[in-house]
TrEMBL record:
<feature type="transmembrane region" description="Helical">
    <location>
        <begin position="6"/>
        <end position="22"/>
    </location>
</feature>
<feature type="transmembrane region" description="Helical">
    <location>
        <begin position="100"/>
        <end position="119"/>
    </location>
</feature>
<dbReference type="InterPro" id="IPR004481">
    <property type="entry name" value="K/Na/Ca-exchanger"/>
</dbReference>
<protein>
    <submittedName>
        <fullName>Calcium/sodium antiporter</fullName>
    </submittedName>
</protein>
<feature type="domain" description="Sodium/calcium exchanger membrane region">
    <location>
        <begin position="167"/>
        <end position="309"/>
    </location>
</feature>
<keyword id="KW-0812">Transmembrane</keyword>
<feature type="transmembrane region" description="Helical">
    <location>
        <begin position="268"/>
        <end position="285"/>
    </location>
</feature>
<feature type="transmembrane region" description="Helical">
    <location>
        <begin position="236"/>
        <end position="256"/>
    </location>
</feature>
<dbReference type="Pfam" id="PF01699">
    <property type="entry name" value="Na_Ca_ex"/>
</dbReference>
<feature type="transmembrane region" description="Helical">
    <location>
        <begin position="34"/>
        <end position="61"/>
    </location>
</feature>
<feature type="transmembrane region" description="Helical">
    <location>
        <begin position="125"/>
        <end position="143"/>
    </location>
</feature>
<feature type="transmembrane region" description="Helical">
    <location>
        <begin position="292"/>
        <end position="309"/>
    </location>
</feature>
<dbReference type="InterPro" id="IPR044880">
    <property type="entry name" value="NCX_ion-bd_dom_sf"/>
</dbReference>
<keyword id="KW-1133">Transmembrane helix</keyword>
<feature type="transmembrane region" description="Helical">
    <location>
        <begin position="73"/>
        <end position="93"/>
    </location>
</feature>
<feature type="transmembrane region" description="Helical">
    <location>
        <begin position="201"/>
        <end position="224"/>
    </location>
</feature>
<feature type="domain" description="Sodium/calcium exchanger membrane region">
    <location>
        <begin position="4"/>
        <end position="143"/>
    </location>
</feature>
Amino acid sequence: MPPILFLLAGFVLLFFSGDWLVKSSVQLARHLKVSTLVIGITVVAFGTSAPELLVSLRAVFDGAADISIGNVVGSNIANIALVLGLVSIVYPVKVKKKGIWFDWLIMMVATIGLMVASYDLLLRSFEGIIFLVFLGLYIVWAVYNSRKQSKNEEKIEKPSLSLFKTMLLFVIAAAGLYFGADWLVIGAKDVAQSLGVSERVIGISVVALGTSVPELATSLMAAIKKESDISIGNIIGSNIFNIWAVLGVTAVIKPINVNESMVNTDYWWMFAIAIILFIVILPLSKGVVSRWKGAILLSIYILYIYLLFI
């Protein structure tokens, strides 16, 4: 099969499988009588990071470390500049969460931690363990803080699917993610070789976009319907999970070699765009990411991708 077909097939499988994994995970949590609060912070967050995790694991075992790291760095850049930028142009996004500054600060800690850990161009297993410990502490704090702020949200909804259908959907989703990640990495590597483009560039642009497609599609549809539940907190949370969960798990299983160009260039873009996010959501807790701010974010993403390929 031609590389471009592997790439497209991987995109499609990751898109649907990521969505199915989140839906089946939520249904399973309801069967287990877990509150919607805990589902939102843990199950859904892990589910939406599953495509990045599978792709990064597959890439590092295939000897394509640039795709593994580039996938996460590119996704973090795309989540803010592309997803939030496009969504804000369609429908301005309001800052709802009062403690958004703290979530942003945690994202910066994760980002700077990745930069420091990658300074010697290698993410070691013990550094992956540190990432996972910080992730665990963050989840415990998030669950505790959310329960403290909204005690009446502990309602447990009834599952809409039977346990058998839930497990079947979960298994199909997991299989889809596995093969989707496999095909995406195979296609990306072959396309990079045929076009004479580095794996770093393909990982940051094409692969990262592929793993961010579910979030982008969901957020855009919600914006078109003028549903105001698109949370900047979800974007920040996704970026935290990408670093601490995806790279944490991957580095524990197999240390990751880091491209020097990525450390010297792409990491700083990720850092700068995180700072820009803080500026566009000012004033905190009452800010609005208006259409002109969204246009600036999208323009920054287009400029970054343009500079990648020249």
